[in-house]
Design a protein that fits this description.
heterodimer; A: about 110 residues; B: about 220 residues; alpha/beta; Nitrile Hydratase, Chain A; 2 domains; 11 helices; globular
Chain lengths: ~110, ~220
């Protein structure tokens, strides 16, 4: 199979790629509180020019096609933000590992 | 929601304003823990203010399609305003007291008897959030994003919208810096409607372009 399409289209570039059988799942729901906080956090990061909107969008496809396919919308956002903050040297992997462990313990969750 | 989506947001009593608390009661999952961790780390480093995320949640909650419907109806009633809205969406929104807080260009696409517009973001989920609030899940879905540019009439039909073949359908793709909204046609038979009655016809979906304003939807 040709690999050319993988080069020409990054994972998010799906305009026109859809199949007519894949109907749009039309429904309404409210965001979970953490999803709204995640949205607001990324807006704040954009205001401060720490992570801008286009960097965040690109970050959601630089997580690899498996995660692009399996993670939910805001799961991709927070992973994208986490990766970008590490790439920019603002946070280190250790910072995040230590802090997530601390937060998990607060809720009696073991990561 | 295909049968009742035009009732999914109430244009008469304004936006939801539930002030989602920053604290949580249920056991969070991995991604929520990551969100909490990153936010707290950035606050501790002084990179973002402690109350900024809470304040931005209030901004998000204050935005709803009610704002868009006011722009549309003002454009229907005042030709001069319509000209200004089509020429410079940002300035016209500011005129109505609506701040485009995310610093994006806001362009309004006018439907005519010969042309129907529909918006999409094929790459992600770009959407005129300051005017319409947060987009519905289906707008962000792979199916809507991947199919709308290829077969818009088939996608619109799934929303119950059948556009006659002699009317051109134009699909506008959005970007991180350029956002769009549709200015739908004012339905016939609304000549005696009040401003409020007109606003109730202009739902979120009519400004995305997946439905058209209908009197019997009210």
């Amino acid at each position: 199979m040709s690999t050319e399409n993988l080069v020409k289209h990054l994972p998010n570039d799906i305009g026109g790629a859809g199949c007519s059988d894949d109907k749009v799942n039309i429904f309404e729901r409210d965001l979970y509180p953490w999803e709204k906080r995640c949205h607001a956090l990324l807006d704040v990061l954009d205001y401060h020019k720490i992570v801008n909107t286009e960097e965040k969008r690109r970050g959601t496809e630089n997580i690899g096609s498996e995660m692009v396919g399996k993670l939910s919308y805001y799961e991709k956002w927070i992973v994208s933000a986490s990766n970008l903050l590490m790439q920019k040297g603002i946070l280190t992997p250790d910072d995040i590992a230590v802090k997530t462990k601390e937060v998990a313990a607060r809720f009696n969750v073991v990561l | 929601m295909s049968e009742n989506h035009d009732h999914s947001h109430d244009h008469n009593d304004g936006h939801h304003h539930d002030h989602t608390p920053i604290t949580i009661d249920e056991t969070p999952g991995y991604y929520e823990i990551l969100e909490i961790s990153i936010r707290e780390l950035l606050i501790a480093r002084g990179l973002i203010g402690a109350d900024e995320v809470t304040k931005q949640i209030e901004v998000l909650d204050s935005r709803s399609p009610v704002l868009g419907s006011k722009l549309v109806v003002k454009a229907w009633l005042e030709p001069d305003f319509k000209d200004r809205l089509l020429k410079d969406g940002n300035a016209a929104a500011e005129e109505m007291g609506i701040t485009i807080y995310d610093n994006t260009a806001f362009t309004v696409l006018e439907d005519t008897p010969e042309l129907h517009n529909v918006i999409v973001c094929t790459l992600c989920s770009c959407y005129p959030r300051p005017i319409l609030g947060l987009p519905p899940d289906w707008y962000k879905s792979k199916e809507y994003r991947s199919r709308t540019v290829k077969e818009p009439r088939a996608v619109l039909a799934e929303f119950g919208t059948l556009i006659p073949e002699d009317i051109k359908v134009q699909v506008q793709d959005s970007t991180a810096s350029q956002r769009y909204m549709v200015l739908p046609l004012r339905p016939a038979g609304t000549e005696n409607f009040t401003q409020e009655q007109l606003e109730s016809l202009v739902t979120r979906d009519t400004m995305i372009g997946v439905t058209i304003p209908k009197i019997n939807n009210n």
